[in-house]
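quick one, two chains, predict together pls
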Amino acid sequence: MTRKQRRLTLIAAAGGVLALAVGLVLYSLSDSIVFFNSPSDVVARHVAPGTRIRLGGLVAAGSVQRGGYLTVRFTVTDGNATLPVTYTGILPDLFREGQGVVAEGALGPDGVFKADTVLAKHDERYMPKEVADALKKQGHWKDDYDKPAAPTAAGGLARGGS
Amino acid sequence: MIAEVGHFALVLALSLALMQAVVPLVGARRGDATLMGVADVTALVQFGFVALSFAALAACYVASDFSVLGVYENSHSTMPLIYKFTSVWGNHEGSMLLWVLILGLFGALVAAFARNVPPTLKATVLAVQAWIAAAFDLFILTTSNPFQRLWPAPFEGRDLNPVLQDMGLAVHPPMLYLGYVGFSIAFSFAVAALIEGRIDAAWARFVRPWVLAAWMCLTLGIAMGSYWAYYELGWGGWWFWDPVENASLMPWLAGTALLHSAVVMEKREALKVWTILLAIVAFSFSLIGTFLVRSGVLTSIHAFATDPARGVFILCILVLFIGGALALYAWRAPMLRQGGLFAPVSREGALVLNNLFLTAACATVFTGTLYPLALEALTGAKISVGPPFFNATFGPLFLPLLIAVPFGPLLAWKRADLAGVAQRLTGAFVVALLGIAATLAIEGRPALPALGVGLALFVMAGAATDIAERTMLLRAPFVTVMRRARGLPRSVWGTAFAHFGLGLTLLGIIGETQWGTERIVAMRPQQTVSLRRYDFTFDGVAPRTGPNYRDLVAHFTVHRNGETIGVMEPAKRTFPSRGTTTTEAALMTRGLSQLYLSLGDPGADGSLAVRIYHKPMVLLIWLGAVVMVIGGGLSLSDRRLRVGAPRPARARAAAQPAE
């Protein structure tokens, strides 16, 4: 093999692997990403039932109802719109009424959001960034949600999977 | 007073770093040995001052001096001593000081132990190292001062985040940082080589031990973090494709590629330009990781309180160092001489393939991690890229790599005979086929997990084949085999161990993901639930008091085939100081598998929500990582690295190449 052929083999191999990687990334990005929506977004964007989304907002005060066998119903609000959510499983430790929450799942045909994963803050001091941004957008952000003087709130998410 | 001493020591460390950043470089240009010698002294003294600063901060934490803001926010007088100490780095400011401490440590180690590195190269390396140190010292002093005072001093602290009150915090961040920051040495060597415009096989030999050490620490740090998340977060997952986990995986992938390409450079003087680039890229990913975690642009478990000024500062450091190094690379790399030639089917070829797949996998992780940020910045749409993306991209790229792993070490340098190697791997193929057949017989369909088991066994048997071939196992008398085994270079054993460990981890991942079972049930006292032939009886709950928390412990008795095999006590732990509750999972190890219990909320009817997992072979995931690290250690103790002199490999090593 000449030097040129060797170099061509190398370039072909690199190009092949690169093409494979790009192909996989493009295919997966079109298929497996999930959009974040606040309850207002869900109304405004007419999110179709069955589309997988992340729903974020505050757990409305007084809305948590524990049903039979690990089923929990609660309402997520961003101040302007609300959306009922059902979830079966174990909620994360920091899930509380009046606190930020991110639920992943899809809207059912009855307009109830069926969550299969519920994420709450990982640290009691801060709020999930997406939730904080959504509340600010809706004009319902209060400074006391974020007591330490940190202009952008970011708290980790604890998970509850089902 | 102690806090001020610490603060002042850090200022002194910064000024020393600035001196070290300039003087040795001038010395290296002029060939002035005195000026170059300054680097060694400043590197050692600078480390001394950073260590003093760190010790002062630790003293504040241990003494619960709440007049220091960081101590007030992250500590509590009733915390056990060990957590008082580890909470030094359980917050942004302290963890950055730990980062700088480790950077100083590596600089001091180079100054003290890199004796046979040519003086100009060493001086330049230490100068580059000092640029990094100066940038981060300045970052701490201007935006994240850990010694910030609070007046009047409160009587009690706000306690450490309960999730962090664990032994994991004592081990995981320091190990991870040793890995991240360890790659800075490779980076400094690469930049120094570009500045000098000269690079040879000896360069690879100087760099390799540092890369190996950093890689070992990073591997252990990632594995430790994964195990910590697994038992602490209470929902049984060990890898979440969380952005911050990805931030540690990217330097690991780039570092693993660097480890392999440095072998080619050292043995064959090929891939020089590529190796330099990888050295820059590996540390760049460490910096990007630091930026992602510390700037708060990503929502993650690891994001502490954030401040935009910090994000901007780290972004500037990032642009300066990565951009600067890559610009220098673009300018100087074409001047470096190209090295040896090789056929596509050869050891070099296999290592190139390894590098291609590792860097491609790294690029997909990078894309998945940063795509949401880029999209939000460009269109405002908020998305999350979760495990499905990474499983669909990372998996297919790792598959061919894993198939190729057993072939690599058996291929000859320069030009190899693929058919011959395949023939020598017959035994490994047979083991893999037996594994597939056995898995199908026991677990039945689908066939995909069985093929995965086959692949893992192929990787492990392939690693064993390499050793068997080299020692002439089963072909020569036992005495000869033992003699040959002793005579093998340690790096050969290192390769075999590391590859074997990779197979173990793969086997653990397949076992846990394919055959792990899970039940979520609401249980009343005296009720029994079965999972995979284990019966769990819920006996009841009892309160228990710890040093700074209260536990509500649930008592379970575990039976198998009617026989009691033990008790498990998961708990809900409440920390009154913060009013928070965490879930403490209970684990029972059965061979390589584990039973895992964690508690949810009490139901309206007096029942208790319980999550029960059976996780087959799960321990192999971390055991494999430990075996990989042992491999790294063996390779690190190889004679040629210990002696490390820049001279050609010995005749014996040439006749039977190591690695």
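Residues 418-515+625-629 of chain B form one domain.
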